[in-house]
């Protein structure tokens, strides 16, 4: 009996020790879990994620609303700078009447200076020294005189006797990208639809189109293509960006297809406008050649191709380039230090010069490179 009692006490002692160890282990494990749980950063960010997303969505909606309002404000401001142009004077106080565009020759123009210079198409205003009638947004009509025009690019500048006008802001037509949003403003039919705004995108750049009129063919090059609706009376109106900058002057559309209209890049005429604004005159220089860029060549000679420069198709008889080393068939790659890849590159540079200024041409003739100096003439 004593031996059994001694064994029982030993077992109990062993169990107590084991139980104590287990309890200590459980206590340590529980403490570990407690410390670990305390160190877990359960921050409100997990719960704020939804609110953050909601805030972004609200901001996006507000941004779109603000953007829409900004564009509406811009268009409202820009339309005040758009004018109606007619070759016939209406008997009323405005050329905007119920008569159609065919009755009045109605077209569009934009104010480019506060002292009355108006930019439009030559086919709207007529050639240099022609008379036309310009109606402002307030309904006042003025006699206009065409001070400059160029049929090859279908642009003209008309002067009216008006002061303190609001002028448009010019953008940079060289920096435009395909896919950018644009707006066209014009007078497509008559009084009921004056200052119509249409929207679209820039569909392409540097387009060349062939125009056939009076049994003659001509080419308009380096045009901006847009799907913004351009109707006949929109001619001469502005093509503008969402920030209100004019990047082109609307000119023609393809009648056999929808959504294909064209505008003349604004950069080409900037030097002329600046000259009129500063001096009231523009002394136009000329080089005396007819040249085409590589986009036109396939229309003329499919066997001819070149990577850069402009192709001299014709030299004007008794012009500045006549009796110089320049020959028909030459490719002009530079004028002074300016690279030439389009006819607009040449025009823009010549427009900055005056008659009797000298220019140096870099010319490629076959495998030969030449440098030719020409004294510019006047018009």
Q: Would you write up a description of this structure?
A:
- Strand 11 and strand 12 (245-253) form a beta hairpin.
- The protein starts with a helix and ends with a strand.
- Helix content is 27%, strand content 34%.
- It has seven helices and 21 strands.
- The chain has three domains: 79-160, Beta Barrel (Thrombin, subunit H); 171-277, Trypsin-like serine proteases (Thrombin, subunit H, Beta Barrel), CATH 2.40.10; 283-378, Roll (Pdz3 Domain).
- It is of the alpha+beta class and 379 residues long.
- It has helices at 2-39, 45-79, 101-104, 122-125, 270-279, 297-300, 343-350; strands at 82-86, 107-111, 117-120, 131-135, 141-150, 155-160, 169-170, 181-186, 196-213, 216-226, 238-240, 245-253, 261-265, 285-286, 289-293, 310-315, 331-335, 338-339, 358-365, 368-375, 377-378.
- The strands form four sheets. Strands 1-2-3-6-5-4 form a six-stranded antiparallel β-barrel.
- The longest helix has 38 residues, at 2-39.
């Amino acid at each position: 009996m004593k031996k059994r009692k001694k064994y029982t006490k030993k077992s109990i002692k062993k169990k107590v020790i084991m139980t104590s160890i287990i309890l200590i282990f459980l206590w340590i494990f529980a403490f570990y879990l407690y410390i670990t749980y305390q160190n877990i950063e359960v921050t409100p960010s997990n719960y704020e994620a939804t609110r953050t997303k909601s805030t972004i969505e609200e901001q996006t909606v507000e941004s779109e609303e603000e953007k829409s309002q900004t564009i509406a404000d811009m268009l409202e401001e820009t339309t005040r700078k758009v004018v109606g142009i007619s070759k016939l004077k209406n008997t009323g106080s405005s050329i905007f009447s119920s008569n159609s565009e065919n009755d009045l020759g109605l077209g569009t123009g934009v104010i480019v200076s506060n002292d009355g210079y108006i930019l439009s198409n030559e086919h709207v205003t007529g050639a240099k020294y022609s008379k036309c009638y310009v109606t402002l947004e307030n309904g006042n009509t003025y006699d206009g005189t065409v001070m400059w025009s160029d049929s090859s690019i279908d642009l003209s500048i008309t002067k009216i006797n008006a002061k303190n006008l609001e002028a448009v802001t010019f953008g940079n037509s060289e920096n435009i990208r395909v896919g950018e949003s644009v707006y066209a403003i014009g007078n497509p039919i008559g009084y009921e639809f004056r200052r119509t705004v249409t929207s679209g995108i820039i569909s392409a750049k540097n387009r060349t189109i062939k125009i056939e009129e009076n049994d003659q063919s001509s080419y308009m090059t380096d045009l901006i293509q847009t799907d913004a609706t351009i109707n006949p009376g929109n001619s001469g109106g502005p093509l503008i960006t969402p920030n209100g900058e004019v990047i082109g002057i609307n000119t023609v559309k393809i009648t056999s297809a929808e959504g294909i209209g064209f505008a003349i890049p604004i950069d080409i005429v900037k030097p002329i406008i600046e000259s009129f604004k500063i001096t009231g005159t523009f002394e136009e220089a000329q080089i005396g050649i007819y040249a085409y860029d590589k986009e036109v060549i396939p229309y003329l000679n499919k066997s001819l191709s070149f990577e850069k420069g402009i192709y001299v198709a014709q030299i004007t008889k008794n012009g500045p380039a006549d009796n110089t080393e320049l020959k028909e068939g030459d490719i002009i790659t530079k004028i002074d230090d300016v690279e030439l890849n389009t006819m607009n590159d040449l025009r823009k540079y010549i427009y900055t010069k005056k008659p009797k200024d000298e220019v140096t041409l870099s010319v490629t003739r076959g495998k030969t490179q030449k440098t030719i100096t020409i004294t510019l003439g006047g018009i």
